[in-house]
Write a structure and sequence with these properties.
By secondary structure, this protein is mainly alpha-helical. The protein has one domain (6-103): Hypothetical protein yqbg (Orthogonal Bundle), CATH 1.10.3230. The chain has helices at residues 6-13, 20-38, 46-52, 62-77, 96-100, and strands at 42-43, 58-59. A two-stranded parallel ribbon has the order 1-2. The longest helix has 19 residues, at 20-38. The chain is globular, with a radius of gyration of 15 Å. The relative contact order is 0.19.
């Protein structure tokens, strides 16, 4: 089950329903990237976290949702490893990692 609704992701990507299958793949990857970076499981609801009895888990919040959508949108907009004709690449402040960093669990700390 996806943490972020496909309809929300489609709106974020400004895409049509015809791209739903592709957006679903990117959404899944974005959610996995978020949980991998956080080093913890993300649960859709507080009840799901309680049921899992996970001391390190976190409930989905607006920041995590925004980070997932940013990553999904990036994957949708940039479908290749190489961009031809770009003058320079600049990382935007407030990107997915910046949003997730305060919630990240770092092993050993």
């Amino acid at each position: 089950m996806s943490l972020v609704d496909l309809t929300v992701a489609r709106k974020h990507c400004r895409a049509d329903e015809i791209d739903d299958e592709l957006i679903a793949v990117y959404l899944d990857a974005a959610e996995q990237a978020a949980t991998d970076y956080l080093n913890r499981r993300v649960y859709a609801t507080k009840q799901a976290l309680e049921d899992a009895d996970d001391d390190t888990g976190i409930v989905l919040n607006g920041v995590i949702t925004a980070a997932i959508l940013l990553t999904c949108g990036h994957l949708y907009a940039n479908r290749e490893d190489v961009v031809v004709g770009a003058m320079a690449a600049v990382q935007i402040p407030g990107g997915a990692r910046d949003l997730l960093r305060p919630h990240r669990m770092v092993p050993g700390l």
